[in-house]
């Protein structure tokens, strides 16, 4: 495996860099359990898409507002989600 590909794979298999790792794994497990029939896993796919959309918006907000790192630390993510669901805002 090329070094660059290995680094990319490691990056996205780490919850610190991939806030949707749980949803990603749930989608893959569903596919595996249902003989790779995507029709059986639409809920998991939709959940994963919603997760990615949410965290991409968080990144976008933080980038526009000069907040670094673009993803909040693991220990702050639940509070970011809770605040967003309560107020509809990231700040």
Explain this structure to me?
The protein is mainly alpha-helical. It has one domain. It is built from 4 helices and no strands. It has helices at 3-12, 21-33, 42-64, 74-87. The longest helix has 23 residues, at 42-64. The model has no long low-confidence stretch (mean pLDDT 89).
Percent of residues in helices comes to 55-70%
How many helix segments? Answer: 4
Structural class category: mainly alpha
What is the H/E order? HHHH
Main sheet: strands, sense, barrel: none
Terminal CA distance reads: 41 Å
Radius of gyration: 15 Å
- Average of pLDDT: 89
Counted beta strands:
0
What general form does the structure show? globular
Could you name the ranges where pLDDT drops below 50 across 5 or more consecutive residues? none
How many structurally independent domains? Answer: 1
β-strand percent reads: under 5%
Subcellular location: Mitochondrion intermembrane space
InterPro entries: COX23, Cys_alpha_HP_mot_SF
Keywords: Disulfide bond, Mitochondrion
Family: Belongs to the CHCHD7 family.
Question: How would you concisely characterize the structure shown here?
Answer:
The chain has helices at residues 3-12, 21-33, 42-64, 74-87. The chain contains 4 helices and no strands. The radius of gyration is 15 Å and the shape is globular.
């Amino acid at each position: 495996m090329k070094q660059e590909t290995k680094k990319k794979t490691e990056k996205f298999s780490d919850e610190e860099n991939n806030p949707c790792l749980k949803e990603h794994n749930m989608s893959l497990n569903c596919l595996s359990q249902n003989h790779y029939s995507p029709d059986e896993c639409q809920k998991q796919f939709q959940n994963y898409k919603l997760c990615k959309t949410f965290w991409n918006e968080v990144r976008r907000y933080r980038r526009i507002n000069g907040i670094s790192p673009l993803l909040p630390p693991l220990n702050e993510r639940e509070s970011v989600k809770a605040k967003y669901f309560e107020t509809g805002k990231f700040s």
